[in-house]
């Protein structure tokens, strides 16, 4: 992409409405614009990052054996009346009427919808087990939408649902998602720690929230410091093998949000305990027959008995993750994107647009890099050098390549690593090889 043509409305000043750094930087880097409270439009730069995150989430769901579907945003109230949640859900649910005066709603989550699909299509033990997911916009009329897309009203969520014949099998599904989440967040360049979460009236120990440590997080968290050093399962993990040892290891040390924290842990763990704040980016939950029973989602087993399906649901806040990543990775100059989600890998700066040699070299590099699959943003504008550097730092691409008349004489470019700040001179004819 050429910056002179790109729709990237960056801001020099800090917008006054933004209280936390990720919100400020997303506005300043031209990623989002507010439509109304908690509802945002995604501009090209923001959308690129959103799509990258979505794709990593998708790949790890697929790897774990989950199958992608797409359910609607608008659901009939009748579904929620069957589960009993229509009245319980309260004011967070946006309720709508269609022209025939039928009650509809904008889905805050999809347990009812997916349970209904499985109820209609699966009758026998031969259809089990199943894990299904979708990545779809949700609406929750939050009392206090704030921090930009971090607590939006409209937001993008990945939600998976598992269906099994018995508890043991359901627990295997839970473990698959547990491991898939470890891998997903790791690939996104963040440390998200699984913490024991409330199971409410359902009970049991199969509910974990995944939290990213950040000062601006809304939850207090208490973590055994060694958890931060645990290894992430590799890409070759066998999802059909026994995942229990991995889950056991990750849950062996203390990790709790303020809701579940026990003060006794403080004396027990001493200086091994880290008290911090965290952002909830994922939540996995086994809830047994909570929806299958009232909604009649049963299958017949080998002996012809009707079995209520055991279910779990597994959410990831795809749009919230952008905020969490920025909270965890920025400096005074702006965003520092982890390579895996960066909107472009390389920011190519033409220091002297209009200079024939600079223009020619940049045009060739730009086309060679793109041809080699290196996503490149070329700053071909007429801004001052200082403004170009500041802008590149703000939008946070992992690499900056600077082409100027002086370096050109020696056939070199200056390459800066956004994260470390390190600069080195590299021969122009070696640049494509360095980045591809
Ligand atoms: P929170 O405690 O932050 O309100 P939640 O527990 O209500 O979140 P879940 O129902 O567990 O959320 O939904 C799954 C995931 O969706 C959450 O872990 C979070 O990452 C994301 N999410 C929930 N609410 C919002 C929101 N208002 N804006 C952005 N993402 C959200
Ligand atoms: Mg909530
Ligand atoms: Mg929560
Ligand atoms: Mg939750």
From TrEMBL:
Residues annotated as domain Aminoacyl-transfer RNA synthetases class-II family profile: 38-338
GO cellular component terms, A-Z: cytosol
UniProt main location, coarse: cytoplasm
EC number: 6.1.1.15
Pfam families registered for this protein in UniProt: HGTP_anticodon, tRNA-synt_2b
Subunit structure, as described in the record: Homodimer.
PANTHER family found in the cross-reference section: MITOCHONDRIAL RIBOSOME PROTEIN L39/PROLYL-TRNA LIGASE FAMILY MEMBER, PROLINE--TRNA LIGASE
Protein's recorded name: Proline--tRNA ligase
């Amino acid at each position: 992409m050429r910056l002179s043509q790109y729709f990237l409305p960056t801001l020099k000043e800090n917008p006054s409405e933004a209280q936390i750094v990720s919100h400020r930087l997303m506005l300043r880097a031209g990623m989002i614009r507010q439509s109304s409270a908690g509802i945002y439009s995604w501009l090209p730069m923001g959308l690129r990052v959103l799509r990258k995150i979505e794709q990593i989430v998708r790949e790890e769901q697929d790897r774990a054996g989950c199958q992608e579907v797409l359910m609607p945003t608008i659901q009939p109230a009748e579904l929620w009346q069957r589960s009993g949640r229509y009245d319980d859900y309260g004011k967070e649910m946006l309720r709508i009427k269609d022209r025939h005066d039928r009650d509809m709603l904008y889905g805050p989550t999809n347990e009812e919808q997916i349970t209904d699909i499985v109820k209609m299509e699966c009758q026998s033990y031969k259809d089990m087990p199943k894990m299904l997911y979708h990545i779809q916009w949700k609406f929750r009329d939050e009392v206090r939408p704030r921090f930009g897309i971090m607590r939006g009203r409209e937001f993008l969520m990945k939600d998976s649902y598992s269906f099994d014949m018995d508890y043991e099998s359901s627990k295997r599904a839970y473990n698959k998602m547990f491991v898939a989440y470890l891998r997903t967040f790791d690939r996104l360049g963040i440390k998200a720690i699984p913490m024991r979460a409330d199971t409410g009236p359902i009970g049991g120990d199969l509910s974990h929230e995944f939290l990213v440590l950040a000062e601006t997080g809304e939850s207090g968290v208490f973590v055994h410091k060694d958890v931060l050093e645990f290894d992430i399962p590799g890409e070759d993990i066998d999802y059909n093998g026994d995942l229990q040892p991995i889950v056991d290891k990750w849950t062996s040390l203390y990790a709790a949000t303020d809701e579940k924290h026990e003060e006794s842990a403080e004396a027990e763990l001493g200086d091994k305990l880290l008290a911090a704040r965290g952002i909830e980016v994922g939540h996995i939950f086994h809830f047994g027959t909570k929806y299958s029973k009232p909604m009649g989602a049963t299958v017949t087993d080998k002996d012809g008995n009707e079995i209520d399906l055991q279910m779990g649901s597994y959410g990831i806040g795809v749009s919230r993750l952008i905020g969490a990543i920025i909270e965890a990775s920025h400096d005074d100059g702006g965003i520092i994107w982890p390579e895996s989600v960066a909107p472009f890998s390389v920011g190519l700066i033409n220091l002297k647009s209009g200079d024939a040699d600079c223009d020619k070299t940049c045009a060739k590099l730009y086309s060679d890099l793109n041809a080699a699959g290196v996503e490149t943003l070329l700053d071909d504008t007429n801004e001052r050098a200082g403004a170009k550097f500041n802008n590149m730092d703000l939008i946070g691409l992992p690499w900056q390549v600077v082409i100027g008349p002086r370096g050109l004489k020696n056939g070199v470019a200056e390459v800066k690593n956004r994260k470390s700040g390190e600069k080195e001179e590299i021969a122009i004819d070696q640049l494509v090889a360095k980045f591809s």
